[in-house]
Amino acid sequence: MAESSEVLATPWASPFTTVLKSVGPKLIPFLKTLGIYFVIFVPADRPSWFAVLLKCLPVASLGLFVILHGISLDQQHAFARKILLALFFSCIGDALLVWPSYFLEGMIFFSFAQISYIWAFGLEPPNFTLGVVIYASTSIGLGMIMPGLMLSEGGLIVGVPVYFILVTTMLWRACARVQIFEDLWTWSKVCSCFGSIFFIISDTVLGLNKFFVEVPDSQAIIMGTYYAAQLFMSLSVVNSHKAVIRVELESEVIDMGDQEFDGDSIPFEIDSFPFAQGSSRIRSSGRSVTWRNSVDSDDDELTLPKSRTQK
Q1: Which residues contact 42 (CB under 8 A, 6 or more apart)?
Q2: Model confidence band, residue 249 (pLDDT cutoffs 50, 70, 90)
Q3: d(Cα 293, Cα 18) in Å, to the nearest integer?
Q4: Peptide bond into 25 cis (omega under 30)
Q5: Phi-psi region of 258 (alpha: psi -120 to 50; beta: other; left: phi over 0)
Q6: 10 Å Cβ neighbour count for 69?
Q7: Which residues in 16-150 belong to E strands, given as ranges?
Q8: What is the C-alpha separation between 197 and 130, in angstroms, rounded?
Q9: What does DSSP assign to residue 216?
Q10: CA–CA distance from 110 to each of 107, 126, 203, 227 (Å)?
Q11: Helix (H) or strand (E) holding 146
Q12: Closest among 133, 222, 231 to 191, alpha carbons compared
């Protein structure tokens, strides 16, 4: 009877510590510019180019973080490129929103950012039940601001609902990726989920403050949650590329679910995750497994010990 085994691919070192060591230094520019923004804190009713600089620097620093983490035209960095594009559009939107008269234009660029995020997160798995719940919940906020929105000038009566659809779709797609109960959640997916939640909180407070009722300390709440959103979105590029697992077979066949592959060494891809809970489980007839994973641009190769076998 052929041997079969189940291998649990898990890094030996502390994954969370590894992630912190990898991304921590690259986040220093963001943390410094974030601190400068809140220390100086130019009020929203005093628009200026200096206010634009202070407001845009943290997001620009996150763009630098994505670039430093590793980006190229290769398929493995497709996710990172889309996140970087979203940050670019967000930065332009930030600059325009400094002046209230450019609110619509700023919202248009943030719409482009949401489209980029949706593009990055994809449409699989659909999870329509979650989508219905999210749209129903966020519709409450839209309903609250509609009376004030009806009194606004320009194209806001059309633009705000369109943006609402986009940001809600972004929230849905980010949360649908997590799949906690299927044990398919990854560092990238969890970060994008948190980012989308902070994004919707920031936009909700902004909408309520502008079209419904004045929110105390609204600027601090809006910008604090907004920067948290962009931080988590940027962190989602960590381990967002595919990890390569190579199984060195002792027999000729490796069984991966409904598929069988022949050969001496079969490469395939899985979503990688730097926490033990999200470790990758594979089933094969071979007993020697090499797991190549990375929380940085350079691969770390871990060779696992031979697995237990069942006769």
Answers
A1: 48, 50, 51, 54
A2: very low
A3: 12
A4: no
A5: alpha
A6: 21
A7: none
A8: 14
A9: T
A10: 5, 24, 11, 14
A11: helix 128-150
A12: 231
Report, as an integer, the average pLDDT of 242-258.
Answer: 40
Query: Structure tokens of 22?
Result: 């990898």
Cα 282 to Cα 8, 245, 279, 291: the distances in Å are 7, 10, 10, 11
In angstroms, rounded to a whole number, what is the distance separating the alpha carbons of residues 180 and 176?
A: 9
Residues 6+ apart with CB under 8 A from 69: 23, 26, 80, 237, 238, 296, 297
Quickly state the pLDDT bin for 4 (edges 50, 70, 90): very low
> Which residues are paired to 291 by β-bridges?
245, 302
Q: Of all helices (H) and strands (E), which one includes residue 168? A: helix 156-176
pLDDT of 266-295, one tens digit each? 343 333 333 333 333 333 334 344 443 333
Residue type, 8: L
Among 252, 242, 307, 248, which Cα is nearest to 281's? 307
Residue with tokens 């940027």: 234
φ, ψ at 301 (rounded to 5°): -105, 125
Which is nearest to 248 in space by CA: 183, 301, 311? 301
Q: 232-254 as b/e, with b when 16 or more CB fall inside 10 Å?
A: bbbbbbbbbbebbbebebeeeeb
The pair of structure tokens assigned to 51 is 């206010």
224: phi then psi, degrees, rounded to nearest 5: -60, -50
Tokens 């329509």 correspond to 128
Work out the pLDDT band at 16, boundaries 50, 70, 90: low
Tokens standing for 63? 């763009």
In angstroms, the CA 120 to CA 195 distance is: 13
User: Residue 246: beta bridge partners?
Assistant: 267, 290
Confirm whether pTM is higher than 0.90.
Answer: no
